[in-house]
Amino acid sequence: MCRPSVEGYIQVVLTHPHYRRRGLASWLLTHCLARTEVPAGVFASDGSDGAAYTIQRWHLHTLAVARRAEKRPHDDDKATRGWAQDRMQPQQHRQDANPGKSERECNEEAIVATLAMYRQLGFHERRYLARYYSGQNDAVELMKMCS
């Protein structure tokens, strides 16, 4: 029986530094990426032949590249604010944040740390996919092939 293949997609979420230090984001991703197949019947278009779907590769949605955002300060809000939405109370954020750093520096560090974490998990980058992402030259696509 031929097993159909699918691609897995993960929404990029930048986590608060406290959770990254504790390894929670990495732990969740490691468990997610350990999945190599999707059970039969989960898709509406499934032909119900009982075959599980093999996950061929994992894709990540895009996020801003720190160096690129740094060169284009007028796009700073657009490039970083969407990725670093902090749902914590401001008082909690101030307790964990480095008082000597600006919000922009903290956002840049979060982007760099998140990219590093995905590289450690085996993802490879394709940068500057402007034609696919509305002309945004700071787009990154991360992909991991499943063995």
UniProtKB/TrEMBL annotation:
Gene3D superfamilies: 3.40.630.30. Residues 93-105 have a biased composition (Basic and acidic residues). It comes from the Eukaryota. This is N-acetyltransferase domain-containing protein. InterPro entries: Acyl_CoA_acyltransferase, GNAT_dom. Residues 1-147 form the N-acetyltransferase domain. Signal peptide: none annotated. GO terms for molecular function: acyltransferase activity, transferring groups other than amino-acyl groups. Residues 68-105 are annotated as: Disordered. The lineage of its organism: Eukaryota, Discoba, Euglenozoa, Kinetoplastea, Metakinetoplastina.
